[in-house]
Design brief:
mainly alpha; de novo design (two linked rop proteins); elongated
Length: 222
């Protein structure tokens, strides 16, 4: 009896291996690992915000609107509970991405304002925070790209035959992915202004008139 059970387990293992079960499992774990790195880098950025706001406030306290915008955007990011279930919930992932996008926009506004304060731009603490923020933004971009690639590979396996049958049997579903930030703005064609404010093109010089044909002298009549 025991030998029969072992044979059954071995046969089941071969069947599951051949139908892509192991690939689905490993790729699912790869998606989770990539997602953890995305969350880690976004958290790293959020942790920089309080010190960055405090430093800017010391030099540009009058920029309350911008400072408040960054603080509120960070609070919104922190209010979103990140759970493993989010990986299978398009609405939750979109909400997470939207909140992070708002913080990205707010931080860009904050850094743009700092250009008006030379003393702040030369402050060592601000320079260090700015460098850390730039490095974190780069890490976020790398982590997002790895997550997008991991999800793409997993989704391809889920939808391909015959692994799609295994995915249906074990309830593996296509996962939502990040979308392009500001997709609507990217898709919008650039505005071209042909109004009165635009400088009129310089007219091309008129071609020189062709020289008149010389008149032939009349021959005397004989």
């Amino acid at each position: 009896m025991r030998a029969l059970k072992l044979a059954f387990v071995a046969a089941a293992g071969l069947v599951l291996t051949g139908c892509g079960y192991n690939s689905l499992q490993s790729q699912d774990e790869a998606v989770k690992s990539a997602w953890s790195e995305v969350v880690n880098q976004y958290q790293r950025r959020a942790d920089l915000v309080p010190n960055l706001v405090a430093t800017v406030k010391g030099f540009a306290q009058q920029e309350q609107t911008v400072l408040l915008g960054v603080t509120e955007a960070r609070a919104k990011v922190g209010s979103i509970q990140v759970t493993p279930e989010m990986l299978n919930d398009p609405g939750a992932l979109a909400k997470f991405q939207a909140a992070q996008g708002e913080l990205t926009t707010a931080l860009k506004s904050l850094l743009a304002v700092t250009e008006n304060y030379p003393d702040l731009k030369s402050n060592q603490n601000f320079l260090e925070l700015q460098a850390q923020l730039e490095g974190t933004e780069n890490r976020i971009a790398v982590a997002r790209n790895r997550y997008i690639a991991a999800v793409q590979q997993f989704n391809t396996t889920v939808r391909s035959f015959p692994t799609n049958l295994t995915a249906m049997l074990f309830k593996f579903q296509v996962k939502p992915n990040f979308t392009v930030e500001n997709e609507a703005a990217i898709a919008r064609p650039p505005a071209v202004d042909f109004g009165a404010g635009a400088a009129a093109p310089t007219p091309a010089p008129a071609p020189a008139p062709a020289p008149a044909a010389e008149s032939q002298p009349m021959m005397p009549s004989t």
